[in-house]
């Protein structure tokens, strides 16, 4: 089954998020090595977007929750480890004291 967002089929998870949100991830998270001027411009653009779309944080939370719900079996596919007491063997007692 293909995930289609805004008529596009995303190839990667990051592309899926960018298409769903309508903004690049770097706008919110930044990029390594950005200058103070670049950071200020990025944060200014982010503030403008949030001013225009005040419900965007709620939409992001909804998309994240839906993704977790959809992919939870794969995300949380864990195998329980045996407990510490199960791994410890009790010494066998023999003799009169046993």
Write the layout of secondary structure elements.
Elements: H1 13-21, H2 25-29, H3 36-52, H4 56-75, H5 84-87
Give a structural overview.
This protein is mainly α. It is built from five helices and no strands. The longest helix is centred in the last third of the chain and has 20 residues, at 56-75. It is elongated. The mean pLDDT is 78.
Pick out its properties.
98 residues, mainly alpha, 5 helices, 0% strand
Strand-residue proportion: under 5%
Share in helix: 55-70%
Number of strands: 0
Mean pLDDT: 78
The oligomerization state is: single chain
Q: Give the class from helix and strand content and strand pairing.
A: mainly alpha
Short structural description:
The protein is mainly alpha-helical. The chain is 56% helix and 0% strand.
